């Protein structure tokens, strides 16, 4: 399976995970963060599908393609996963608007915070690489 095909398949899987998350919203500790996770799953799933569709147009070496691929996967899936864990655990230090200022245990807060910091970094890296690959 090519990287483009993998992005398409994983994008559809993430979109599906986002849809399923939407069904769980009423049962979560923080439903508002559950809605956030639902939206992250569906939007990031579409982003992976889009990336898979343009993948063949990128003028990049194999190393850069692999860095972009794995950065995309971590950034999109961890975004959905971290917000879902926050909704389940009731953490909200990094997401005060969605959580209404509520916070969870120190360990849960650190896990979610670390994941979301990684999401920001890997998403920026992946999009920058893709941009360079499109304009090269």
Describe this structure in words.
The chain is mainly α and 136 residues long. The chain has one domain. It contains five helices and no strands. Helix 1 (3-24) runs parallel beside helix 3 (62-89). The longest helix is centred in the C-terminal third of the chain and has 30 residues, at 106-135. It is elongated, with a radius of gyration of 16 Å. It starts with a helix and ends with a helix.
Query: How many domains, in number, for the residues?
Result: 1
Given helix and strand content, the structural type is: mainly alpha
User: What composes the largest sheet?
Assistant: none
What is the terminal-to-terminal distance?
25 Å
Strand content: under 5%
> Average pLDDT value?
95
What portion of residues is helical? over 70%
Main features:
136 residues; mainly alpha; 0% strand
Short description:
The chain is mainly α. The protein has one domain.
List the helices and strands and how they pair.
Layout: H1 3-24, H2 31-54, H3 62-89, H4 96-99, H5 106-135
Helix pairs in contact: 1-2, 1-3, 2-3, 3-5
